[in-house]
From TrEMBL:
Pfam families: M20_dimer (PF07687), Peptidase_M20 (PF01546)
Gene source species: Halorutilus salinus
Keywords from the named record: Hydrolase, Metal-binding, Zinc
Entry keyword annotation includes Hydrolase: yes
InterPro entries: ArgE/DapE_CS, Bact_exopeptidase_dim_dom, Peptidase_M20, Peptidase_M20_dimer, Peptidase_M20A
Cofactors: Zn(2+)
Keyword Zinc assigned: yes
Molecular function terms from GO: hydrolase activity; metal ion binding
Family label: Belongs to the peptidase M20A family.
Ranges where the Peptidase M20 dimerisation domain occurs: 149-245
Protein name: M20/M25/M40 family metallo-hydrolase
PANTHER family: ACETYLORNITHINE DEACETYLASE (PTHR43808), PEPTIDASE M20 DIMERISATION DOMAIN-CONTAINING PROTEIN (PTHR43808:SF8)
Length: 353
């Protein structure tokens, strides 16, 4: 196939099921994108150029469930992954293949296998290879806006320990009552604010407790979703929760959800950075305009931002202007001209056009 044509690549890859296994997507990349190899981390990688400046193009090959079959409606491609993130990936592959300023810079294409779950691939790749790059572009659906920041995502569990007793008596310490009080305390935590990202957000997403209807419940559990802004860390979030629960009638334990990779922390890249300004100019020249804004979800850009300035960019959107979901929804789609525009912008940036 012609990998310089992003729409042909998109048509092919949206047909590939990648919600349960990325094996077929991996094989497609290895067979069709020049110079690709499978890294021990599971990422598919390629490198081109000999310049001192190194730019990383990163997107992901996995999608969420369920699979939604490919469809074409004029200039719109529909199906699972069309915008998240095979549209952005198609643009990046096209730009990588068209990159010819090999003396000016080195370009690395790094395609993650599990961005939608635990991000083991990119985490292990960066651990093995280190930083060693000057700028990164992460391919996600931004409606062709240049996104220089994003909130992170932490997840924690609060276990509350009371004292069981018969419900007919006066004894015991009700862990479910403690959980109700804990929810109020957690929801009253003052948000942290970032000039660009706005306020942090904390949401109690699940409550579990009690065993039988005639006993005072001894245990209850809360699940918490946290969307932090810089400079909050996962450990700082745990401390914040513990402080808010101080003095509650029950004993409690706060712990981060188990995962083999670090949580995605918030990141923010300086809009005045030279790479960012040059990238924005390339996008404006290619598509006639863009804006700089935060991205609306946590991404693997968090890992890359620990090493170098990073932006998030790509065709398609997470949602419509009225909030109707696009990505991860049954109606997922991307516009063909947006995909072509993203590919042109990336190519202009890489080739100094």
């Amino acid at each position: 196939m012609n990998t310089t044509d992003p729409v042909e690549f998109l048509d092919d890859t949206v047909r590939i099921r990648s919600h349960e296994s990325t094996e077929e997507m991996r094989d497609y990349l290895l067979e069709n994108v020049s110079g690709t190899r499978e890294h021990p981390s599971g990422c598919v990688v390629a490198e081109k150029g000999e310049g001192d400046e190194t730019v990383v193009l990163n997107s992901h090959m996995d999608t969420v469930a369920p699979h939604i079959a490919y469809g074409r409606d004029g200039d719109v491609v529909r199906g699972r992954g069309s915008c998240d993130a095979k549209g952005p990936l198609s643009a990046m592959v096209s730009a990588y293949e068209r990159f010819d300023a090999v003396d000016a810079r080195t370009v690395r294409l790094v395609v993650s296998p599990d961005e939608e779950t635990l991000s083991r691939g990119l985490h292990d790749y960066l651990n093995a290879e280190g930083g060693g790059f000057d700028f990164a572009v992460v391919g996600e659906p931004t409606s062709l806006d240049v996104c220089t920041a994003a909130k992170g995502r932490f997840e924690a569990t609060v276990e509350l320990h009371g004292e069981s007793a018969h419900a007919a008596g006066d004894g015991g310490t009700n862990a479910v009552s403690c959980a109700a009080e804990a929810v109020g305390r957690l929801e009253s935590i003052e948000p942290s604010y970032d000039e660009l990202l706005g306020g942090s957000r904390l949401t109690v997403t699940r409550i579990e407790g009690g065993e039988t209807p005639n006993r005072v419940p001894e245990n209850a559990t809360l699940r918490i979703d946290r969307r932090p802004v810089p400079p909050e860390t996962a450990e700082g979030f745990v401390s914040l929760v513990e402080e808010s629960l101080d003095g509650i009638d029950c004993g409690y334990d706060v712990r981060l959800a188990d995962r083999p990779t670090p949580f995605l922390e918030a990141f923010r890249t300086d809009e005045g950075n030279g790479h960012v300004r040059r990238f924005r100019s390339a996008v404006e020249e290619a598509v006639g305009g863009t804006c700089v804004r935060p991205f609306g979800a946590a991404t693997e850009a968090s890992y890359l931002a620990r090493h170098a300035p990073v932006v998030v960019f790509g065709p398609g959107g997470i949602q419509e202007g009225d909030g109707t979901p696009i990505a991860h929804s049954e109606r997922e789609y991307v516009g063909v001209e947006e995909v072509r525009g993203a590919a042109e912008a990336l190519t202009r940036f890489l080739n100094n056009e």
